[in-house]
Amino acid sequence: MTQAYDIVVIGGGNAALCAAMTAAETGARVLILETAPKPYRGGNSRHTRNFRCMHTGPLGPLVDDYSEDEYLADLIKVTGGKTDETLARLAISSSEECLPWMQDHGVHFQPSLSGTLSLARTNAFFMGGGKSLVNAYYRTAQALGVDVLYEAAVRHLELDGDQITRVDYSHAGQNRSVSPKSVVVASGGFQADTDWLTRAWGPAAQNFLIRGTTYNRGIVLADLIDQGVQTVGDADQCHAVAIDGRAPKYDGGIVTRLDCVPFSIVVNKNAERFYDEGEDVWPKRYAIWGRLVAAQPDQVGYVIIDSKSLDLFMPSVFPPLKADSLQELAQMMDLPAGTLEHTVSTFNAACSDSADFHPTELDGVSTTGVTPAKTNWARPICDPPFYGYSLRTGVTFTYLGLKVDKTAQCSTANGPIKNMWAAGETMAGSILGQGYLAGFGMTIGTVFGRIAGREAAAYAN
């Protein structure tokens, strides 16, 4: 490198871009090192579609209001209290100012999608999805003078005492180095490294599908851990969703997610139910199903619905299997037909009056006398044709990451690293101890990306 840079940002997704733009607006000279080639830039952010936003009164596409306390309560519920409340409140309270900032930096929004999402009050949807957001940010970053190197794989950050002195990476077949004044690490988790997943989860991880980019392999994370940078979170905690079993091994994205679970029964390969499909509205509980399926034999589950539920959820990217009888559907799905018919008849007998059925909110239409119970949206599965999907565990991102403070700064046991900050999935475990809340990953990335960019620029300047 012949040009001197004030700041190097490692990663090319939402958090990295927010950091780069924020730093560049102070006059800092910024370089983004993105491992992916240009067509695949953006990490997991290109697969997103919304971010969760606190607001007092209507804001942009958001209706009504969504208070800090309600937002935090939603987060506490899905994480089981495993969160750093100080950092969580910082992410939540800062999210309100993010929406107009995002618009100012090229992002366009649209009304929320219909179906089981029902997020018009809580989540702002990107027009064109995450790919459009990523493209808009790269255009803005370029206009601000940010340089980007694609296919630049960072291998090592030299930690000398309390500061990073050198960033080593490969590009165009050569090993190169750069020595910036500040570094922002926004290179995601390690979910694309199935060997690392297997060390954390055991052999079951070999059956997992990876929803996002193939480039988040945790190379930078592992390098920093080896040098004593403090971490947070558990290696076996992650944002894992039950996705269509026909999805590709990598990079299937958000379209492989299935939103039909609340209106179904879900069985394992033995045709037995194993959890309450109607526990809560889908945006708050969809992320637990990846872990639930992971605990089943062969890490697979099967969704069973009937014709009256087919139009109640977002259409699937692959059409469901269709049969005129449960026996025929069981044969198509390689399930024991007799057991499936018994499971469905037992469930149907436990359903009560469904007159109060309401697909977009908790309706209390529940079962009685069956285990596990279904506590909402419990209607008999009795109207042919019947439909089925296979489910696999789809990992979005891992929660073992870099521990940060409220300024996004990283530390060792000896104290803060003077010139290194982290943002996005690589530090999300600081807030997400377990579980997930729809759109919250983009909130964390946006808030802490801006903080990291601001702090890195202040140090460099």
From TrEMBL:
Signal peptide: none annotated. Residues 6-433 form the FAD-dependent oxidoreductase 2 FAD-binding domain. The keyword Iron does not apply. It comes from the Bacteria. One of its GO terms (molecular function) is oxidoreductase activity. Keywords: FAD, Flavoprotein, Oxidoreductase. The keyword Protein biosynthesis does not apply. This is Fumarate reductase flavoprotein subunit. It comes from Pelagimonas varians.
